[in-house]
Amino acid sequence: MRALHSNVSARRGAGNERPSSTVIARITARKSGRAGVGWGVVFGLYVATQAFAFATSYKTPAARHLLVVEFAHNTGISALVGPANNIGTVPGFTAWKCLTVLAIIGAVWGILTGTKLTRGEEDAGRWELLLVGPVTRRSAAQQALLGLGAGALALFVSSALITAAVGRSSKVGIGTGAALYFTLAVVSGAIMFLAVGALCGQLATSRRQAAGFASAILGASYALRMVADSGSDLSWLRWVTPLGWIEELQPLTRPRPFALVPITCLVIILAGATVSLAGRRDLGAGTLADRSSLSSIRRLPTSPLGLTLYSSRSTLIAWALSIVAYGLLLGSIAKSGGKIITSSASLRSVFARLGVSGAEAYLGVALLIMSVALAFVAVGQVSAARKEESSGQLDNLLVRPFSRSTWIGERIALGVVVIVVGGLLAGVATWLGAVSDHAHVHLTSMLGAGVNVCVPALVVFGIGVLTLAIVPRFVSVVTYGLLAWFFLIEIVGGAVGVNHWILDLSAFHQMSAAPATPVDWTTNAVMAAIALIAAGLGIELFNLRDLKGE
Amino acid sequence: MTTPAIETFDLRKDFGSTRALIGLNLQVNEGEVVGCLGPNGAGKTTLIRLLLGLIIPTAGRAEIFGLDSRRQTVQAHRRLAYVPGEASLWPTLSGAETLRLLGKVHGHVDEAYQVELIDRFGLDVTKRVRALSKGNRQKLILVAALMTRADVLILDEPTSGLDPLMEQAFRLCVHEAKERGQSVLLSSHILSEVEALCDRIGILRLGELVEMGTMAEMRHLSALTVEATFEGSVPDVTNVAGVSMVDVQGTRVRCQVRGSIEPLLSVFASSGVVELLSREPSLEELFLSHYGSPTSEVASASPAQ
Lengths: 550, 305
Fold this sequence. Notes:
B: 305 residues; 14 strands
């Protein structure tokens, strides 16, 4: 004991001792900061890609004029990604292509991070040990919010650095002040929904429920913004939704910093409510009443696979609805998009050589985003399997007559079905959207395109399963890293013209641009075989390792 | 000769450079209740997770009724039920839904006994798991295992979080299981529970089985505690064969004796003894006699525990 005491005293003397009362702030800042920097880089690169793509694809005033004619007053596109102001210029086009998309991605990140680092940590029992010490529940919430603030700052700084650097290019011409204001607008979604996530963590009884509440708020916010931007008399609705406030900031076109007022007020109110509620509720409980008893046994599935499906039904339905909605919107603007593509001399010649034009040419390019979305679904499926293992829930099944191979085999089958159904839904919804706009798109070619966008997701899924079998604790890092790598190579590599050997490393690059080009079944078969071999190896290797917790 | 319910053959498990289990040979016969004792990090949970096939042995093998726990896992699991010290269940399911799911996965449930167990443990199965206390969650896991009437029960700290009344209910269940011919491997820190329930007891230390036998066999190997009161002064017994830990207080002496007690009785008889008490060591004393250096055990804690 004396030795221990002297050891502690020595460390104090060396200045290594930190007050334990700030440990939650430090841990939260470290975790959210790391993720914030990563996503900031992705945001910055996305902005750079869009700015340079416009500068190189729409060089002539005629091409830019056609762009304005087709999109400036297109209510469908306005509802989807916001009004197209000044899109005949590099700053206007960049703001239009990036603001809403990145604000939504940032909001999703905010929800996941805000709930994970507050309610998720509490659910895991990691806060309990600290809360019996000098830290109160209110203080813990304050510290977590400070940590989340550090994450938002990291997101802003890393994104702003790239955007400002890109803006200095003579092709782009965005001033540093404008770049910083634009980045602030882009990350506002993340900042507001970090706070929404933290508050929902106080209202709900679990992290999953908190994420559900926050997602519903984001969905309602997006729906209100869509109505406001649909060209009706309801444009005032933009002022009652957080995503509308971001739009009202109008960066790079007609800046209106006044819209920062409601954004700031919302964050302050949500943070205050979070701290206040944290001090009033019991640890582990939610502020909203929870039905803790059930009067009768529900008719739930009684197989492990059925239970997995039941547990993930909300997430799967949300993904399906998002894919269908996005497919419908994409289809409904395909004709206009096709005209724009054929207005670009370089693209027109490329597609002319392939024998396609119009809507199918546009969809061949635009469906990449569906493939990215399905890859996210794949990552979610592998992560959910890992969560079942690390939480110890899998132990309950594997100590009964239920084999490891059956469990992972069912998980693989479920993942493949979800991805393929998602792809087919994307194809059918896009076709329906195109048909509603009288575009000449065939159902069979869209079904082929739907299968086509599944294949990169299957590659990510197969490698994810293999990672789960070999290094389970690195599943998230490897799968998200792989997805980011594929995406960045395809987007950035294509724009800056990197070596084809590097481009070939991206599954998105290997995917053909169906329906603009025929589906390359040979390449798809090779990619599917890689996925299958990786998943098969995963089944074998999973049987050879210890089950591992967090 | 019948096949043992549980048998391990030179079972070894390493976690990196840490040796969690070193060449363990253990046998639990049909209808037998065997206790497994040891401080934290001794290898108890590692042993149980190896028996269940949740972790892979570095060397050796484990069998459940002759079925290899690694290669014939599913067949072996049809014959066993397991209770962990703390299970991570599905928080949104109610107790009844959890029992139905786990019963379906196991494949066999004695429904009448399930109802009896729910009543015996006073379990409210309408509540969602997330609303249950730790003790009630433990009852749920116990019911889920016992309702299967499996041939072998593997119990790892099964009464963790239970109140004394529920602990009595648990002991009754183990007695009933033994009467029905079921085998039980019980890992516990509650020595009185192990002493009351087990036919044989094994003591693990640093991954090795250092003692295995019935209480009587183990007592025979250990010292007897003797207390004596004298009319006058206490005789010097420190040099008597087999005597140790001599404690003199006034006219009373307490000491421990290994081997024959006869030399000590001769000294007492010639010194005017007026009261003589002797008792066999409790399981606690037996257990503690194996652990002179508790810090070394803590340092050896394996990742599985």
